[in-house]
Write a structure and sequence with these properties.
Number of domains of chain B: 2
Number of domains of chain A: 2
Number of helices of chain B: 14
Strand content of chain B: 5-15%
Largest interface: A-B, 18 and 32 residues
Strand order of the largest sheet of chain A: 4-5-3-6
Shape of chain A: extended
Order of helices and strands of chain A: EHHHEEHEEHEEE
Mean pLDDT of chain B: 95
Mean pLDDT of chain A: 87
Oligomer: heterodimer
Structural class of chain B: alpha/beta
Largest sheet of chain A: 4 strands, antiparallel
CATH class of the largest domain in chain A: Alpha Beta
Distance between the termini of chain B: 63 Å
Number of strands of chain A: 8
CATH topology of the largest domain in chain B: Aspartate Aminotransferase, domain 2
Number of strands of chain B: 12
Low-confidence stretches of chain B: none
Number of helices of chain A: 5
Helix content of chain A: 25-40%
Radius of gyration of chain A: 21 Å
Helix content of chain B: 40-55%
CATH class of the largest domain in chain B: Alpha Beta
CATH topology of the largest domain in chain A: Alpha-Beta Plaits
CATH superfamily of the largest domain in chain A: Lrp/AsnC effector binding domain/regulation of amino acid metabolism (RAM) domain
CATH architecture of the largest domain in chain B: 3-Layer(aba) Sandwich
Strand order of the largest sheet of chain B: 2-8-7-6-5-3-4
Chain lengths: ~180, ~400
């Protein structure tokens, strides 16, 4: 299991990330202790703990979670659908009001506002195709201001959140060399 | 058919090869190579694989049919990229036609440089501790390697006084081989330190062979090529490559830049022995220089964190360890344990299955040191430190 942190980061023009070092470390492995992070960054423990607390409070660190590859579990695989949703924006609140009504459903795993031919990209997870279809038919489509939906069922996950899900063969270096 | 007995064949081996002592730690290496489930901090190469965009370019090149020889000097596109890189990064100008040669790793560059400048018996300064191949390569080229030991109290750096003393003591030394950041000590030189050395180098009219293959892995200050200092370009053979910074050890690709006459001589040897560096690796090199900066920086940031971790952890368990300024090695002393580097390494391997390299491999006087490579995953480094601690208990 790999433990990751949910947050957003941006690539700057120089090609590096504009992320703080502590965030970079936690994004890759959220299970590291404050002591270990202090050692890796050369900062003292109190400063590291304080910085992490501040990020949590501000919401920069939204959550700590594991990237789980459910397809390796017996009967554990879930059905995932990407739904393109067209909506009519509302006076004063734009897309946000209707987006909130959609992303508040627990079935919705991710929800993004996009430019282009449709407005929201909604990722929905369910135990089987029927569950997802029911959700679209009875919950999502009837919502006021939803103009259209196009549902794509996901066939296979190759990479998620930066993690390649296929277990690669480990290339062995020589045990020792100059 | 004439058959020779074994002893007769031994006699027929060229003297300069025959008298070359085998590496003193060969037996230890064989022990490590034959052992399973070892955590190794003894590896002299990155633990990262070559960044995908570079590998992808190599695959694409094969698909496109890039399978031929190239110009002896290397593809002009690659030489141009190299020259641009040196100009943009360090402000040094080289001519891609007459002053740049693509080599099979820096190792070939060193061999070519030595063979191009050394006459039989010519002396060349080799610093210690240093990479194991320099002395044998100098000897094979017919030269006489003269060691200068760098000292721990100077951070394993050559000082101008030391160089001056050595030049006065050993008359008529032709060249100095310098490698920084240094394998195994991690020592590197600031611009000011290099300028002070450059004065002595000019005073004694030395040629410098500068192995700067770890330049991308400089952590505490910006790397300065010695050839970028005033009046040095005409006496420096600058060697660099893709192995360490770009994690491309298996591609075996590097380059040499230097004065036109010396590069012409090196190219002559190269064309008769190697012909040209492999075209796939050259294509990969072009991609690395064009688009590799981000990947190099990501790896560098990771090495920096591991460096902090391991130096801190080793000092905490009582192994005196200075903070290296570059590479992915630390070179602590194990004297406080009452053992020399070889027994330390052997016992650690047998009892705790952790591999590292005894310091004597890098110079006779460093038998109380070990080289620990932090080009290993954080988990492996953490586990190794834990095992070293248990072993010392």
């Amino acid at each position: 299991m790999r433990c990751r942190m949910v947050l957003s980061f941006i690539f700057n023009s120089k090609g590096g990330t504009s992320m703080n070092e502590i965030l970079e470390i936690l994004s890759n492995d959220a299970r590291l202790s404050v002591e270990e992070i202090a050692r890796l960054t050369g900062k003292n423990k109190t400063a590291v703990a304080k910085e992490i607390k501040a990020y949590e409070k501000k919401g920069v660190i939204a959550k700590y979670k594991a990237v789980v590859n459910r397809s390796l579990l017996d009967n554990g695989a879930l059905v995932m659908a990407l739904i393109e949703v067209g909506i009519t924006p509302q006076k004063d609140v734009g897309f946000d009001y209707i987006a909130e009504r959609i992303y508040s459903f627990p079935e919705v795993k991710s929800c993004y506002l996009l430019s282009g031919v449709y407005d929201l990209l909604v990722m929905v997870e369910g135990e089987n195709i029927q569950t997802v279809a029911d959700f679209v038919a009875s919950k999502l489509s009837p919502l006021p201001h939803v103009r259209s939906t196009a549902t794509h069922f996901m066939l296979k996950k190759y990479k998620e959140d930066g993690v390649i899900l296929k277990k690669g063969k480990k290339i062995k270096r020589l045990n020792i060399s100059y | 058919m004439v058959t020779f007995k074994r002893y007769a064949m031994k006699k027929r081996i060229a003297k300069k090869v025959d008298i070359m002592p085998p590496s003193g730690i060969r037996a230890f290496f064989e022990l490590v190579l034959g052992m399973k489930d070892v955590i190794s901090l003894g590896v002299g190469e990155p633990d990262f694989v070559t960044p995908w965009h570079i590998r992808e370019k190599a695959i694409y090149s094969l698909e496109q049919g890039y399978t031929s020889y190239t110009s002896n000097k290397g593809m002009i596109d690659l030489r141009t990229q190299i020259v641009h890189f040196l100009k943009n990064r360090y402000g040094i100008s080289y001519d891609p036609q007459d002053q740049t040669l693509v080599t099979v790793g820096v190792s070939e560059g060193i061999d070519l440089a030595m063979r191009a400048i050394l006459n039989p018996g010519d002396k060349i300064f080799i610093l210690e501790p240093s990479y194991v191949s320099y002395r044998p390569m100098a000897a094979l080229a017919g030269g006489r390697p003269v060691s200068i030991e760098t000292r721990r109290e100077n951070g394993f750096k050559l000082t101008p006084d030391q160089l001056d003393d050595a030049c006065r003591k050993h008359k008529k030394v032709k060249a100095l081989l310098i490698n920084y950041p240094c394998n195994p000590s991690g020592a590197s030189y600031t611009r000011t330190e290099l300028s002070a050395l450059a004065r002595v180098i000019k005073k004694y009219d030395l040629i410098v062979i500068s192995d700067e293959v770890y330049d991308e892995l400089s952590y505490d200050f910006d790397h300065t090529p010695i050839s970028s200092l005033p009046g040095m370009k005409e006496r420096v053979i600058y060697l660099n490559g893709f192995s360490k910074g770009y994690a491309m050890t298996g591609a075996r690709i590097g380059w040499a830049c230097g004065p036109t006459d010396i590069l012409a001589a090196m190219t002559k040897i190269h064309q008769y022995t190697i012909m040209c560096a492999p075209i796939i690796s050259q294509m990969a090199g072009i991609e690395a220089l064009r688009n590799g900066t981000r990947a190099v920086h990501e790896m560098k940031r990771e090495y920096m964190r591991r460096r902090r971790y391991i130096v801190d952890a080793l000092n905490e368990i009582g192994l005196e360890c200075h903070m290296p300024q570059g590479t992915f090695y630390v070179f602590p002393s194990v004297k406080s344990t009452g053992k020399d580097g070889m027994s330390f390494a052997q016992e650690l391997l047998k009892k705790k299955k952790v591999a590292l390299v005894p310091g004597e491999a890098f110079g006779r006087s460093f038998q109380y040191h070990v080289r620990i490579a932090y080009a290993a995953s954080y988990e492996d480094i953490k586990e190794s430190v834990k095992r070293i601690k248990e072993y010392l208990r």
